[in-house]
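User: Need the bound-state model for iron/sulfur cluster:
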Amino acid sequence: MTERLKIAVVKMTGCAGCQMEFLRLEEEMPFVLEIVDIRYFVMAKRENLEGPYDLTFVEGSVSTPRELEELKELRSRSKTLVAFGDCACHGCVPSILNWMPPDVAANMVYPNFEAIHSKKESYRKICPLDEFVTVDIYQRGCPPHKNTILEVLRSATLGIAPFLRRHPVCVECKLRENVCILTFEKRPCMGPVTAAGCGAICPTVNRECEGCYGPMSDANAQSLAQKFSEIGLPKDHVTRKFRKYAGITSAFAKEADNR
Ligand code: SF4
Ligand code: SF4
Ligand code: SF4
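Assistant: Bound-state model below.
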């Protein structure tokens, strides 16, 4: 039997939803454990081992000096580093902070923010991992669908690049034979500019895609923003659509900025 890949699953600034998705591989876990040795995964196991690792999944964006230090250390101990989820790839929901004063955002959530230690050490800007280190694999999604986690694990075992889609959600939506809610109901769906991988979950249950996989390859954000305006979406709502998950990417920055 070939040696199993040594993997780590690590959390930065995020909600832990990506790690939860990893744990949703319940039925597949016996197969997963045949090909990988989970050395570090604090959410899932009691005994955790320091690297080096073959494959490190890093969930969350970087928002503090402590996280930056940890990330650089992880990079030096990892053969392959995976930006695990939209926070790690594009900043995701935490990056909304980049457009408002930290105290305003904090007071929306915490009545007494003084008790939150991270306030003192927080960076003003929330950044994806590749702002600081080289990322080998971008695993998009908030959270990434568990099938894409399997794809990354399988391909790493074979020593090949994973097949992670960059065509738009619309392709998956059409394959499911959904009626287009943007064209026929004039509802603001982000599917035309969002990378596929989720199986068009939201439009399939009659909800707009919110763009949680981040930009597809060659996304035409300007055209979709114009379409949103034509169907009557106010300008600040258009801004929020593009800001919510990947506003700091070059593909969405102009539409997310609105200044
Ligand atoms: S990408 Fe989404 S699910 Fe994953 S940590 Fe960030 S907010 Fe949570
Ligand atoms: S409903 Fe959304 S994802 Fe589906 S085809 Fe229309 S725009 Fe694309
Ligand atoms: S349809 Fe859009 S918002 Fe929904 S899971 Fe897929 S990428 Fe995310």
